[in-house]
């Protein structure tokens, strides 16, 4: 967007007191906080936000929804290009600190994690020479070409492919597209394991990068162990368990496509010998099986997408974990996860307590797990926390 058009952008004035969260670094303006709007912004337009004393607070993308502005800058005079380039460079510097850049063993990571990287509404995942842009706001949908330019500016010569992949809830209105190249898949390296990532047809942007460190942990405890990987998707946990020396691994996923992918990835790492994959509903599988395992991994999809669904989701997690615990051998381990943002750490733990009581086992908490650090949470925007995990020692 040109600077000239940004000069005439809408001014949004907040009600008295509503500036406090913004001054603390929160990046959302809720529609209920708006006192007055001078102008008629369209979805995705840049707007300027002011407090009730007419002090400039920040500029961001507008859309008509309960979060009506996603703040992107506290400098009124910067344009989209300057903002994107600065934030992408900053995000890259952070990933360098994490050791994720120029790493000979891992070449897939999340470069932009929305609010955690100061860019609400935007996800960018890097898979070797491919960048996947996932817009989560109208403003970011309109900015994909500028995002592409910023990517090329901060990581020159890196990309053969730049692909825009819209989230499931925008699939009807929006079309995924290549902004550069046309190859829809990549073999990536993660801690020296190889995975085939198809970002055109895969879930999310193609791979669950957020579980990288937790998969690695599983590898460290798998030697000689029998492992059940429930909700296996592309077989990430299975590959690490096999690489760590598991005696055998069973992968279970309801999706046939996921099972094909898991088998493919296990083969890509030459671990087929000790792996079997089942295309089945996990609860059915658990209830029908007589087998007990040394290690059980439960990584279900988000059971609750919003507050309304939370109660039911908690019941679902409890049922699943109670069944999962029954399949852990005495002295074995349960690694259990929830990626529902609305189920916080405390509620998740309490749900596992309820499941433990139902399963009637003595259980110790070995470790608490979370999302990998390339999915950072802005300290002033706690809503960014979503993945929680517990490693449990089950007597
Ligand atoms: N652990 C994976 C990510 C899991 S995503 C990783 O590290 O990559 C959740 C997976 O659960 C999806 O692949 C989805 O197909 C599967 N799934 C959803 N509902 C299911 C059910 N009832 N039974 C089995 N699998 C299910």
- Number of domain units: 3
The quaternary organization reads as: single chain
| CATH architecture label name of the largest domain | 3-Layer(aba) Sandwich
Q: How much is the radius of gyration in Å?
A: 22 Å
Instruction: Name the CATH homologous superfamily of the largest domain.
Output: Vaccinia Virus protein VP39
**Number of strand segments:** 20
Our measurement of the CA-to-CA distance between the termini, rounded to an integer number of angstroms, reads: 61 Å
CATH topology of the largest domain: Rossmann fold
Percent range for β-strand residues: 25-35%
Structural class of the helices, strands and pairings? Answer: alpha/beta
For the sheet with most strands, the description reads:
7 strands, mixed
Dominant shape: globular
Bound molecules: S-adenosyl-L-homocysteine
Which short descriptors sum up this protein?
alpha/beta, Archaeosine Trna-guanine Transglycosylase, Chain: A, domain 4, Transcription Regulator spoIIAA, Rossmann fold, seven-stranded mixed beta sheet, 11 helices, 20 strands, 29% helix, binds S-adenosyl-L-homocysteine
What features would you describe in this structure?
The chain is of the alpha/beta class and 395 residues long. The chain folds into 3 domains: 10-73, Archaeosine Trna-guanine Transglycosylase, Chain: A, domain 4; 80-191, RNA methyltransferase domain (HRMD) like (Transcription Regulator spoIIAA), CATH 3.30.750.80; 208-394, Vaccinia Virus protein VP39 (Rossmann fold), CATH 3.40.50. It contains 11 helices and 20 strands. Strands 16-15-14-17-18-20-19 form a 7-stranded mixed β-sheet, sandwiched between helices. Strands 2-6-5-4-1-3 form a 6-stranded mixed β-sheet. Helix 8 links the parallel strand 15 (248-253) and strand 16. It is globular, with a radius of gyration of 22 Å. The structure holds S-adenosyl-L-homocysteine.
């Amino acid at each position: 967007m040109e600077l000239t058009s940004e000069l005439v952008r809408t001014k949004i004035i907040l009600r008295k007191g509503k500036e406090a969260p913004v001054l603390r670094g929160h990046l959302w303006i809720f529609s209920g906080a708006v006192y007055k709007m001078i102008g008629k912004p369209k979805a995705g337009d840049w707007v300027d936000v002011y407090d009730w004393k007419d002090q400039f607070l920040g500029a961001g993308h507008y859309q008509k929804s309960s979060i009506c502005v996603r703040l992107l800058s506290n400098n009124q005079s910067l344009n989209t290009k300057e903002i994107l380039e600065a934030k992408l460079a900053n995000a890259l510097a952070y990933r360098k600190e994490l050791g994720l850049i120029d790493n000979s063993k891992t070449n897939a990571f999340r470069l932009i994690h929305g609010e955690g990287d100061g860019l609400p509404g935007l996800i960018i995942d890097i898979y070797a020479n491919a960048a996947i842009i996932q817009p989560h706001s109208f403003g970011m949908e309109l900015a994909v070409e500028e995002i592409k330019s910023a990517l090329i500016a901060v990581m020159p010569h890196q990309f053969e492919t730049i692909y825009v992949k819209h989230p499931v809830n925008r699939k009807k209105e929006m079309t995924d597209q290549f902004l550069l190249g046309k190859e829809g898949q990549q073999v990536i390296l993660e801690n020296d394991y190889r995975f085939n990532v198809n970002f055109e047809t895969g879930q999310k942007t193609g791979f669950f990068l957020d579980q990288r460190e937790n998969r690695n942990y599983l590898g460290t405890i798998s030697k000689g162990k029998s492992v059940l990987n429930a909700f296996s998707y592309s077989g990430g946990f299975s590959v690490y368990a096999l690489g760590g020396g598991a005696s055998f691994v069973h992968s279970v996923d309801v999706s046939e496509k996921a099972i094909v992918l898991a088998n493919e990835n296990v083969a890509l790492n030459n671990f087929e010998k000790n792996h079997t994959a089942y295309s089945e509903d996990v609860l059915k599988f658990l209830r029908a099986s007589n087998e007990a395992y040394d290690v059980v991994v439960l990584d279900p999809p988000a059971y609750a997408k919003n507050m309304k669904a939370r109660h039911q989701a908690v019941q679902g997690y409890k049922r699943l974990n109670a069944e999962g615990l029954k399949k852990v051998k005495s002295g074995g381990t349960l690694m259990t996860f929830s990626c529902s943002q609305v189920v916080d750490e405390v509620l998740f733990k309490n749900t596992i307590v309820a499941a433990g009581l139902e399963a009637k086992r003595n259980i110790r908490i070995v470790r608490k797990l979370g999302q990998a650090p390339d999915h950072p949470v802005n300290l002033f925007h706690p809503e960014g926390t979503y993945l929680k995990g517990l490693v449990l020692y089950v007597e």
